[in-house]
Amino acid sequence: MTTAGTTTGESLPPALTAENLVVEYPAGRGRKVHAVSGVGLEVAAGETLGILGESGCGKSTVGRSLIQLPPPDSGTVRLGEVTLTGLAPAELRRARARMQIIMQDPVSALNPRRKVKDLVWEGLSIWGSGDDPRDKDTRIDAALRDVGLDPATVRDRRPHELSGGQCQRVCVARALLLDPEVLICDEPVSSLDVSVQAQILNLLETATRRRGLSMVFIAHDVSVVKNISDRVMVMYLGKTCEVLPSDGMQDEAVHPYTRLLLASLPEAQRGPVAVADPAVSDGPAADLPSPLDPPSGCRFRTRCPLATGLCSEAEPPLRDIRPGHRVACHHV
Ligand SMILES: Nc1ncnc2c1ncn2[C@@H]1O[C@H](COP(=O)(O)OP(=O)(O)OP(=O)(O)O)[C@@H](O)[C@H]1O
Prior knowledge:
Blueprint: E1 16-26, E2 32-43, E3 48-52, H1 59-66, E4 74-79, E5 82-83, H2 89-96, E6 99-102, H3 106-109, H4 116-127, H5 136-146, H6 151-154, H7 164-177, E7 182-186, H8 194-211, E8 214-219, H9 222-228, E9 231-236, E10 239-245, H10 249-252, H11 256-263, H12 267-270, H13 309-313, E11 319-322, E12 325-327
Parallel strand pairs: 3-8, 3-9, 6-7, 7-8
Antiparallel strand pairs: 1-2, 1-4, 4-5, 9-10, 10-12, 11-12
Helix pairs in contact: 4-7, 5-7, 7-8
Adenosine-5'-triphosphate (ATP) binds at residues 25, 33, 35, 53, 55-61, 220, 291.
Domain ABC transporter: 16-262
Pfam family, one: ABC_tran
Family: Belongs to the ABC transporter superfamily.
């Protein structure tokens, strides 16, 4: 376990492990965006890890690094016992079929010219047992039924003839047909109507529970992440601030940034605790830093009401404060 990692407390090997992921994007004139700076995680078999943080903190970059699209600049990713980073392209493509990704915009994730039945079969025909077409129609229909779609109605339609929610169900059906071990969901409901969001979340929750699938669930919506995840990893400006169980998160969270996020929840969801807490408001400077030139020491310090000189001098390590709960803050 690296200092950047999270602890599952499981004795079985984790389904997915990442250590010290670093991703930097070129930004012209010799500058670079420090999108992800030494992030690690572990996801146990059957566990859902939520990744939470505001826009631009690097959540999607972590998700894409996990599936190696593209690989991180440095760091390692292991799927079960297989180290994905450094695999030859052909081996990587084969191994990657065991990990599927569901994206934010389901309509653009689907080829508009193909029918639903072909879209669902697509992955299997490339990576799986789709070379045996005998039971193809039965399997496509079962996959569609599994995600709550009526095969007779949708199998011959194209994506533009479906709603956003139906397209997301097709994406889920296609991913599940490959029988993956890990599902990466990157903001899977944020482009959908509120009324449809709960249906897709229920679908993902049921599918992962029934199949014992591990899931990494990325979103900026605190209540969505908290509800679907077993544990939550909070990111700020390319770093991990805190990792903790989602149960009782509103009482147990100690990092000032996590508390700030929780304070944004309606009172009915967060409970009455956070408002009088000195650590829930943006600090006096409320200075929004740039990933091009992140603050020294603790990256949250320019917004943190608890910040002291130490926070600008030294980066707080991510350390265990109790089993399953890790925090990177000098003042906790
Ligand atoms: N291809 C790219 N080239 C340059 N910069 C990028 C690229 N992709 C992401 N970034 C930058 O990297 C940082 C992290 O982006 P990322 O999309 O991972 O964050 P995020 O937390 O997922 O945000 P959002 O929720 O808005 O998608 C941001 O500053 C973003 O502008």
